[in-house]
């Protein structure tokens, strides 16, 4: 008599079944256990793939966000450069001529001086502070907290 165990369930086969059939049944049972093991491995693989897909989705979202920030920064930089070109009029025509040595004559020392001269429009201007060896561009904030604020950036 042949007994087959299936996860705690014993199945008795009658002794009438010949040995060849019993051997084939045992082979099928072994194959069934192998298939169940393979299914378990495949389920683990599926779980790992799902985790990887989630990770890729997160990376894609982050990359998209960073890309949008870079585009925003690029547009901001482009806008600032355009504003600089339109706002920073030639120094010779607004503040006097430029000497042969390249130093600005008649340039304001800071944004407060510009404000005192009646220039109350915020924008990018060229100034020559007393301690500076040459003029440079600054942003003048003329409409907040009384105006005259000088903003410079050294990059």
From TrEMBL:
One Pfam family here: Fibrinogen_C
Organism superkingdom: Eukaryota
Listed InterPro entries: Fibrinogen-like_C, Fibrinogen_a/b/g_C_1, Fibrinogen_a/b/g_C_dom
Protein name: (California timema) hypothetical protein
Gene3D superfamilies on file: Gamma Fibrinogen, chain A, domain 1
Record-linked SUPFAM superfamilies: Fibrinogen C-terminal domain-like
Fibrinogen C-terminal domain sequence ranges: 102-155
Source organism: Timema californicum (California timema)
């Amino acid at each position: 008599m042949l007994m087959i165990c299936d996860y705690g369930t014993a199945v008795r086969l009658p002794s009438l079944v010949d040995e060849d059939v019993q051997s084939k049944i045992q082979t099928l049972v072994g194959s069934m256990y192998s298939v169940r093991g393979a299914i378990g491995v495949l389920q683990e693989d599926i779980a790992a793939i799902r985790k990887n897909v989630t990770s890729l989705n997160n990376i894609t979202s982050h990359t998209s966000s960073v890309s949008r920030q870079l585009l925003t920064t690029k547009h901001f930089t482009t806008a600032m450069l355009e504003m600089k070109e339109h706002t920073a009029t030639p120094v010779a025509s607004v503040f006097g001529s430029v000497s042969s040595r390249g130093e600005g004559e008649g340039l304001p020392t800071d944004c407060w001086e510009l404000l005192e001269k009646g220039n109350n429009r915020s924008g990018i201007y060229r100034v020559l502070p007393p301690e500076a060896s040459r003029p440079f561009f600054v942003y003048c904030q003329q409409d907040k907290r009384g105006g005259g604020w000088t903003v410079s950036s050294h990059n």
